[in-house]
Design a protein that fits this description.
- It is a single chain.
- With about 260 residues, the chain is an alpha+beta fold.
- The chain has a single domain, classed as Alpha-Beta Complex (Creatine Amidinohydrolase).
- It is about 30% helix and about 25% strand.
- It has a 5-stranded antiparallel beta sheet with strand order 7-6-8-13-14, with helices on both faces. Strands 1, 2, 4 and 5 form a 4-stranded antiparallel beta sheet that branches.
- The longest helix is centred in the N-terminal third of the chain and has 24 residues.
- The chain is globular, with a radius of gyration of 17 Å.
- The relative contact order is 0.20.
Length: about 260
Amino acid sequence: MIEILSPVELERAQDAGALVGRILQTVRDRCRVGTNLLEIDRWTKELIDDAGAVSCYVDYAPSFGSGPFGHYICTSVNDAVLHGLPRDYALADGDLLTLDLAVSLHRIVADSAVSFVVGQDAHPEDLAMIDATERALAAGIAAARPGAKVGDLSHAIGAVLTDAGYSVNTQFGGHGVGSTMHQDPHIANAGRPGRGYTLRPGLLLAIEPWVMADTDELVTDADGWTLRSATGARTAHSEHTVAITDDGARILTLRP
């Protein structure tokens, strides 16, 4: 399903995006060495509830997961890159943490992710990998305009990632959002320009480059949800929800 939002729905989408951005920034600011992933999940639930919003994750049970997710935010640490199930783990100095959040407000979904290093012991390789995903995200957003093809976005993202020396997994990537969290079109993080669905004003897209340091192969954790690099290598993931407008892409999930 691909939804094209009305002007009224786009106004609600801006509210949803702003909320996701605020929650992610609040949670990121609270993370310290010793913070437990389950504590992060509790903070997120409180912030969602206080806003009168609805979690897109807690009851989510897609084919690629193991039953309902049961938590409010994805917390992927080090070699975990996607769908990190919160668990009883205290963050250590130098951990590379990705927070990924999707929330529905006024029946419109926004989705965003941010990677960062906890504490002071940041490895240059980790910072470079985070930077590559953020630059790839910016390139994908710059390519997202009316009349562009999905393949144009994929090509722009993939060019940045491969130029930075990373191999790209295209199994999971960006996607449409709207009244539900995952919609068409799928936005692979590498592809050929001029291919795929033509973007139109009113379309919401979650664009999300992610990489693993030395592989493009994923393995599923024993929890049935968390996806990790097959080699145990570190990972990074950046994501924003954007609205396609007559003037290009408007980022809805900016963090204050």
